[in-house]
Amino acid sequence: MEINKETAYKGFVMSGFIAILFAIALIVGAFLCFLKANDNAYFGILGVFTMALFVLCMNGFVKLEPNEAVVLLFFGKYRGTFSNDGFYWVNPFLSKKKVSLRARNLNPEPIKVNDKVGNPVLIGMVLVWKLEDTYKALFEIDSQSLAPVSNSGKGSVSRYLSQAFENFVRVQSDAALRQVAGCYAYDNADSADELTLRSSADEINEKLVLTLNERLAMAGLHVTEARINYLAYAPEIAAVMLRRQQADAIIAAREKIVDGAVSMVKMALDKLKDEGVVDLDEERKAAMVSNLLVVLCGDEPAQPVVNSGSIY
Hints:
The structure is a single chain. It contains 7 helices and 10 strands. The protein is α+β, with helices and mostly antiparallel strands. It has 3 domains: 13-98, no CATH class; 104-233, Tetrahydropterin Synthase, Chain A (2-Layer Sandwich); 239-297, no CATH class. The strands form 3 sheets. Strands 7, 8, 9 and 10 form a 4-stranded antiparallel beta sheet that branches.
């Protein structure tokens, strides 16, 4: 039956410290055999065999820290993933590929995309991701494309694998960010209920996480958090959009000033009438309303004209 997902390694495992004692015994035995090789040629052959066994034994040691795992292969066949932290010894004929299961950050440079209405914007994000399925990560994608041709060391292979995973996440995060950003407008002053990149950060971040996990599921990678950390109009339209925002702010301020002025004029007319200060006909009321609105809504201080005569 073909294995298509991560499974725990169920082969022989023993403590690495016990295996070290056995390895020491082998090297001591090989040394003693070489000392007696001059007396008997069979001791020389036995010494060579013991030394070869020692070298083979040294290939079986595995040291894992917390949140690390090693994928074990037997002549190309997947035998399982071993993730118990500590010092162990396994079958020396197994090939080992160590990977990290720890959470990692990715903070790529902001990219230029077109929002829902076609405006070019600069948008960037930061995400936290980790490896969840070692089988998919190593065998469902070409994670070894950046690995060295010759395995000069286990550590170097592990670093190259991590770099390959990071490059895969970087490419997919770029595509996911373009996809999500294209579904929303940067800002929309006409409709307060519409989700926008600027005002709906939580909803956009949730959508971004879902989109990223859909893309990374095939590689056994999982995004735990993704947030937009940079958002701005592209330089070619930034000045125009700034003037538009200023105009929108001025209009909104004018609307509030007018609403307040109308309320104040109505309150003044009602109070003059209720307290019997002066009885104004409709023409005089219209003149008073006009004068008060000019005073309350004007950008510059009004210059009052004092009429010392009768108003009639």
